[in-house]
């Protein structure tokens, strides 16, 4: 543990706490302070992104099975999953949650929720980088997988 790491955050608990707070804020803001109803096309786009993102996150979580953990620290007995959505992106759950949060913000036309979605994107970028350092230590095959598969967006990022 480095001097900047605290015992409560040794496995990445701080990322999870921030993630929960951001997701709760994104979900609650449109209900607590409703915005003007967005145009129908924006609402439909938002609902589509919400649905696709939720489906991607759900599929990815199911594909991980017993390897699933909210922490960036891999399970000691875990396996590296490289199939299904993990053949397209290294962190498809994060990508799905980002799509869903963006969709929710658009469907409600709420700029605050949209801003929190941007904060969530930054958090997931930091969390994914930390997670990948841990995965490299845990799985000898991870560097080759990282070379083949993009982090969040297939073929781009």
From TrEMBL:
* The keyword Oxidoreductase appears for this protein: no
Q: What is its main location?
A: membrane
Please name one Pfam family that this protein belongs to: PEMT
Look up keyword Transmembrane and say if it applies: yes
Q: List all membrane-crossing ranges.
A: 15-33, 45-62
Topology versus the membrane: Multi-pass membrane protein
Check the record and name the InterPro entries matching this protein. Answer: Metal_cation-efflux_comp, Phopholipid_MeTrfase
Where in the cell is the protein located? Endomembrane system
Q: Which domain of life is it from?
A: Bacteria
Keyword annotations from UniProtKB, A to Z: Membrane, Transmembrane, Transmembrane helix
Signal peptide positions are: none
Protein's name in the database: Isoprenylcysteine carboxylmethyltransferase family protein
